[in-house]
């Protein structure tokens, strides 16, 4: 029994993939972040960013918060802000799936949709203008150390614990890069031999949750020295793998998770042995209004 739903953030399951890897000397484990109460890995960062800002006195019940998001962080922030009785406006491109928009509003957040033509970069610009001109406060997931520190405190230790310290490779899609920065920092402290693999989209691929940022929008929390290798995946590969995960492993997830597992399999093909952990960052029900799981896919 938990005292509050916030106590259910983290300690997500780690399961072994049973059909994707044929080499008996390589194990692929999937960390199911959709089991967080808000449905994604972003619950961890959202909670740590809000709770730390409250503890430091940087925000209170009179603050007007604003944040640009592609979806999952917004849902997590909406849920946690509601619990702490905070006002928050979430800004996202208009082509976000309706499930995400409706979920944020269900948690009580104001949702502002910006033109899809300017993407998440345009949503970030809009939020920053409100901070500059209207006195809003932005948690700034792209530059907030409390983002990556949440994974240093929780995700990394969980992976090390649940693999009994045998993990050899960690694979994560890169968006804000908080997950890979924090998990890398912890795992490298346990063993410098653990390899950290980031996932980016190929040129001209659009994969929700994975970005290849223009230099001026590169997250300030990103440190390339904490990533040993970057593997690129295409939109087609990520979508096909998301569908394979559902059909073959019973893991219902989004396209960024498909991208991470695609990269994990590409990595596995280069190894003789290893223990790979890949992040399954959210649940597939966030994408039902898109064509990701269309019957003719």
From TrEMBL:
It catalyses: O-acetyl-L-serine + hydrogen sulfide = L-cysteine + acetate. Its cofactor is pyridoxal 5'-phosphate. Pyridoxal 5'-phosphate binds at residues 72, 175-179, 256. GO terms for molecular function: cysteine synthase activity. CDD domains: CBS_like. Keywords: Amino-acid biosynthesis, Cysteine biosynthesis, Pyridoxal phosphate, Transferase. It holds the Pfam family PALP. Residues 6-282 form the Tryptophan synthase beta chain-like PALP domain. It comes from the Bacteria. Pathway: Amino-acid biosynthesis; L-cysteine biosynthesis; L-cysteine from L-serine: step 2/2. The modification N6-(pyridoxal phosphate)lysine is found at residue 42. Its EC number is 2.5.1.47. The keyword Amino-acid biosynthesis applies. GO terms for biological process: cysteine biosynthetic process from serine. Signal peptide: none annotated. Belongs to the cysteine synthase/cystathionine beta-synthase family. PANTHER family: CYSTATHIONINE BETA-SYNTHASE. NCBIfam families: cysKM, cysM, PRK11761.1. This is Cysteine synthase. It comes from Aquimarina intermedia.
């Amino acid at each position: 029994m938990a005292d509050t739903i916030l106590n259910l953030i983290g300690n997500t399951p780690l399961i072994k993939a049973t059909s994707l890897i044929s080499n008996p000397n390589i194990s692929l484990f999937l960390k199911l972040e959709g089991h967080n109460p808000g449905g994604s890995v972003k619950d961890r960062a959202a909670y740590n960013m809000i709770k730390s800002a409250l503890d430091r006195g940087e925000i209170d019940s009179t603050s007007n918060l604003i944040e640009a998001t592609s979806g999952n962080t917004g849902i997590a922030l909406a849920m946690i802000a509601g619990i702490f009785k905070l006002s928050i406006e979430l800004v996202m491109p208009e082509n976000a799936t309706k499930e995400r928009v409706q979920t944020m509003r269900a948690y009580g957040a104001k949702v502002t949709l910006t033109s899809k033509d300017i993407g998440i970069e345009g949503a970030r610009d809009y939020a920053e203008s409100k901070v500059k001109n209207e006195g809003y406060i932005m948690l700034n997931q792209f530059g907030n150390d409390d983002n990556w520190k949440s994974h240093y405190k929780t995700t990394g230790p969980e992976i090390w614990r649940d693999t009994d310290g045998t993990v050899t490779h960690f694979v994560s899609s890169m968006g804000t890069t908080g997950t890979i920065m924090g998990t890398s920092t912890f795992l490298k402290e346990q063993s410098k031999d653990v390899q950290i693999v980031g996932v980016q989209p190929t040129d001209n691929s659009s994969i929700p949750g994975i970005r290849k940022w223009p230099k001026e929008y590169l997250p300030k929390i990103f440190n390339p020295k904490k990533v040993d290798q970057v593997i690129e995946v295409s939109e087609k590969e990520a979508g096909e793998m998301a569908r394979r995960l559902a059909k073959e492993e019973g893991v219902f997830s989004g396209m960024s998770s498909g991208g991470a597992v695609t990269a994990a399999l590409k990595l596995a093909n280069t190894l003789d042995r290893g223990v790979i952990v890949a992040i399954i960052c959210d649940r597939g029900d966030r994408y039902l209004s898109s064509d990701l799981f269309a019957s003719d896919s």
